[in-house]
Amino acid sequence: MIEFELLHLPFLVMVVALSGLGLGLLAKGADRIVLARLQRRIGPPLLQPFFDVAKLMTKHSMVPKGAFAGLFLYLPAAGVCAMAVALALVPVPGWYQPQVQLGDMLVLLYLLAVPAVVIMLSGSASGSTFGAIGFSREMTMMLAYEGPLLLVLLSVAIHVGVAQGGLICLSLTEIVAWQQANGSFITNPWLWPALLAFLSVIPANLGVPPFDVPEAESELLEGPLLEYSGPALAMFKLMSTLKTVVVFSLAVVLFWPGSVMGVAGLAVHLIKCLVLFLTAKTLLRASVGRMRIDQAFLFYFKWPELLGVLSLALVLFGAARG
Length: 322
Description:
mainly alpha, 11 helices
């Protein structure tokens, strides 16, 4: 198990972020290849996401007339930093354990909201009409999926906290340890509604079809990202990559952690993340079209919200019985 002292935390965040970027860009390359095969296309090479980011880094970032240059250029970098810290908060069972000084599940919840805020503010700072529309849609989607996400995290935290003799557990490390000792939540029927709610939140949280309405290419021409180019646009791609790794790693940690130690534990964790990635993202992209903003909003206020409420009710009922 890898551990770092407090003085080494900046180095830890950097190492975790670089590792996450490498793995995330590889996953995006695999996503493109699998999607192309499903659509009977050849598709790009596996390393194409690396080439895209490298090429953007060599370009010049254009600032549109009327844009707030400071926010426009530096907000994407703030999103990358937030996701780097978020990734450092997620443990890898049997391989990596985050330091308590970095924060807990509550801090991670706030950090997961940063990319959406960055996209909204960037779209507003660009001075573009399409960016303003994307701002509105991003805010609407955020309001729709944050509720179910909070209910899912509360359900897991209360379940483990009560089982430990307390009220709530916000430590992801303790949640993993409890599952390693008592069984993963993926086999616990009481938390199946929470699992389904979390899986349904993933597409909107990552902005992929059918919930990519804030950046709909055919409607808004990438919306908030329309005016971006060069390194600033590359920062958005890196932010998206890190967030993808964070979300799928969190899904594995919350519901499907393993007990294998060492390098084998890391390999098992990555395989599980890849399975969820190809299922919850790639297959979904290939199977459905984009929803309208009103359809997406109502969907999250119906089914994921109900699943989250049901999961929390079951957990509280079980705690009361115990």
